[in-house]
Specification:
Number of strands: 7
CATH topology: Rossmann fold
Strand content: 5-15%
Order of helices and strands: HEHEHEHEHEHEHHHEHH
Bound molecules: NADP nicotinamide-adenine-dinucleotide phosphate
Number of domains: 1
Mean pLDDT: 96
Helix content: 40-55%
CATH architecture: 3-Layer(aba) Sandwich
Radius of gyration: 18 Å
Low-confidence stretches: none
Distance between the termini: 42 Å
CATH superfamily: NAD(P)-binding Rossmann-like Domain
Strand order of the largest sheet: 3-2-1-4-5-6-7
Number of helices: 11
CATH class: Alpha Beta
Length: 267
C-alpha cells in the first residue's frame, strides 16, 4: 500500500460533518480504502446511505450544538471498534451576513457549532486518546483564517479560534503521543454556502459563485488525507490563484490586502 492509504491502514477514523461535501468525500475515500470510519452529522438518513456502500463505514448521529449529547456520542464511537485513532473535526457552518446587521444569536450559532462544539468534542476525544497513548486530531479550518473577509466575521473568529485551540494543544498533547494537523481549504463545491447563516439566522439557501467554481470535494478530501498522513502541522488545499494572492499579500503587504478587501464585493 502506498500514499495516504498506508498511514490510515489499521486506524479507526471519526469524521464529523460527513453527510455532505468534504466530510462525505473523506468518508468515501476512507471507505474505499477499507479504513474503519465513523461518519457523523445530524442528517442520519444521508449517513446511513453513505455507510451502506462500505462495510468499514459506520453512521453515528451527532449534533455539535447539543452539548449534553456529546459524551454519549463519544462512548458510542469508542464501542464501534474499541477506539478512535484519528478525529477529523470537519463539521461546520459558514456565514453570509454583515456584522452590523446580524442578530447576535446568528453570530453565536456559528461560534457554537464551529468552535465551541468542536472544542467540546475534541476535549472528550483527546482525553481518551491520551489514555490510549496515541492519536491524531485534525481540524478543518478555512482560508479565512489567513484572509478574514467581509461577511464572515463570526466564521473567521471561530476558525481562528480553532487555530488557537489546536496550536496550544500541540504542546500539551504532543508529549502524550497525540499529533495535531490543521487543514485550510480555499474554495470547494459543497453545500456550505447553502447552509450558511444569514443576518437573521436563516439559511442563505444559495450556491455562491465561489463555491460553484470551487474544487471538487473528492480532490479536496484527497489532499487533506495526504496532508494528514504526512502529519503536516498546517496546510492549504483547494486554493485558487486569487486566494493565493490574498495569502501572499497578507504576508508582504497586509495594508493593501485590507484596502482591497474593503473594495471588492465578497459573496
Ligand atoms: N466548501 C468550502 O469552500 C470550504 C472552504 C473552507 C473551509 N471549509 C470547511 O470545510 C468543512 C466542511 O464544509 P463543506 O464545505 O463540506 O460544507 P457542507 O457540505 O455544508 O458540510 C458541512 C457538514 O457539517 C455538518 N454540520 C453542520 N452543522 C452541524 C451540527 N450542528 N452538528 C454536527 N454536524 C453539523 C453538516 O451535516 P448536517 O447538516 O447533516 O448536520 C455537513 O455534513 C467546514 O468546516 C467548512 O468550514 C469549506
Amino acid at each position: 500500500m502506498v500514499g495516504w492509504q498506508s498511514y490510515f491502514a489499521g486506524k479507526r477514523v471519526w469524521v464529523t460533518g460527513a453527510s455532505s461535501g468534504i466530510g462525505e468525500a473523506l468518508v468515501r475515500h476512507l471507505g474505499e480504502a477499507g479504513v474503519v470510519t465513523i461518519a457523523s452529522a445530524r442528517r442520519v438518513d444521508r449517513l446511513e446511505r453513505l455507510a451502506s456502500h462500505y462495510s468499514s463505514v459506520h453512521a453515528l448521529e451527532l449534533d455539535l450544538a447539543q452539548k449534553s449529547a456529546l459524551s454519549q456520542a463519544v462512548n458510542t464511537a469508542w464501542e464501534i471498534d474499541g477506539g478512535v485513532d484519528v478525529l477529523v473535526s470537519n463539521a461546520g457552518i459558514s456565514q453570509r451576513a454583515l456584522f452590523l446587521e446580524s442578530d447576535p444569536e446568528a453570530l453565536e450559532r456559528v461560534i457554537e457549532i464551529d468552535l465551541l462544539g468542536t472544542m467540546r468534542l475534541t476535549q472528550l476525544v483527546a482525553a481518551r486518546m491520551a489514555h490510549q497513548g496515541s492519536g491524531h486530531l485534525v481540524a478543518i479550518s478555512s482560508v479565512v483564517a489567513r484572509i478574514p473577509a467581509p461577511l464572515r466575521t463570526a466564521y473567521a473568529a471561530a476558525k481562528l479560534g480553532l487555530h488557537g485551540l489546536y496550536d496550544s494543544l500541540r504542546g500539551e498533547l504532543g508529549p502524550l503521543g497525540i499529533d495535531i494537523s490543521i487543514a485550510l481549504p480555499g474554495a470547494v463545491r459543497t453545500e456550505i454556502s447553502h447552509h450558511a447563516v444569514t443576518a437573521t439566522g436563516e439559511q442563505h439557501g444559495e450556491m455562491d459563485a465561489n463555491q460553484e467554481s470551487g474544487d471538487r470535494p473528492e480532490r479536496s478530501a484527497r489532499a487533506i488525507l495526504r496532508g494528514v498522513a504526512r502529519k503536516r502541522r498546517e496546510f492549504l488545499v483547494s486554493m485558487t490563484p486569487k486566494l493565493w494572492l490574498g495569502v501572499v499579500l497578507r504576508g508582504v503587504a497586509p495594508g493593501l490586502l485590507w484596502r482591497t478587501l474593503a473594495k471588492v464585493s465578497v459573496t
